[in-house]
Amino acid sequence: MRFAKIATLALATLAATPITAQELTLYSGRGEPLIAPILQAFTAETGIEVNVRYGGTAELAILLQEEGDRSPADLFWAQDAAALGAVADMFQPLPEATLERVPAAYRDTDGRWIATSGRGRVLAWSTERVSEDELPATMAEMVDPKYRGRIALPVTNGSFLAHVAALRVVAGDDAALEWLRGLHANAPVIVRNNTAAIQAIGDGEADFAMTNNYYLVRFQRAAADFPVTQTLFPTEGDIGNLLLVAGMGVLQTSDHSAEAVAFIDFLLSDAAQQFFSGEVAEFPVTGRVIPTRTDGITLDEVVRMAPEVDLNAIGDLEGTLELVREAGLL
């Protein structure tokens, strides 16, 4: 499905809810190339402009906390549940009709934020310099000295921080700190984000990266022979196979709650979910859209191999950042 088709989406909520605002302010940890078509489609459908402040997810969560009641944001779109949990007390409860559009596992237990798309954490690796027998069986094995200098690590990326937060929940802070120190001792190639991590492998600067399932797909669409592939860790339930979500909440201080909720409903429509699946190569969260297979990895496989982690429990962003600093990675 191409971008232009999204503009035909019908928003049933608009018919039932008075819409008066002509613009919304969105803080987005999702990059402009990913979401610009959705924003354009929403504006074409409703006449409501969406003014966006882009930034790193963790950076924007901290900014919201600093701004407090002075924040101009109506909505916060984060690429992970950890950032959403960090500012959940700043969100207003969402309508039940909106919450019911996704399974309970994909939303805040108190109804303050909701997933807009899913993504699996995967291991990306070089097809030129790595053989399958070199692949680690678990994420814990990434600290093995044989991987020294070979891992591209986007240490400030929101998904990586959410992954560490989940590790803290599952294994405890001491174990998480030990693993982070092991990564630091392995002299990782520090990169700015997941895209740069995949590029580093392609350029020969690194051999491995822990990333989200959809980044490699974009490189493969541009060059079918791009020398990188990806896989899940083969150990079922391993923390390396974490299933994460991107999601959104409406700020309590917003003067445009109805419009903000309408935007969330727009993102949960079948056509928007198909956009996330087909164009962005993420996983839909409503259960109404068949997900696109991404480089041999399906949503069913990700769900089967994923560990059981309550996404509502990984919201201690500051504590996670402090642990990463203590390990010497920041």
UniProtKB/TrEMBL annotation:
Presence of the UniProt keyword Metal-binding in the record: yes
GO molecular function, one term: metal ion binding
Signal peptide segment: 1-21
Highest taxon, organism lineage: Bacteria
Keywords in alphabetical order: Iron, Metal-binding, Signal
Iron keyword on record: yes
Top-level taxonomy: Bacteria, Pseudomonadati, Pseudomonadota, Alphaproteobacteria, Rhodobacterales
Organism: Rhodobaculum claviforme
PANTHER family: IRON-UTILIZATION PERIPLASMIC PROTEIN, THIAMINE-BINDING PERIPLASMIC PROTEIN-RELATED
Coiled-coil parts of chain: none
SUPFAM superfamilies: Periplasmic binding protein-like II
Transmembrane segments: none
Pfam family, one: SBP_bac_8
Record GO cellular component, one term: outer membrane-bounded periplasmic space
Binding site for Fe cation: 214-215
Similarity annotation: Belongs to the bacterial solute-binding protein 1 family.
InterPro entries for this protein: Ferric-bd, SBP
The name this protein goes by in its record: Iron ABC transporter substrate-binding protein
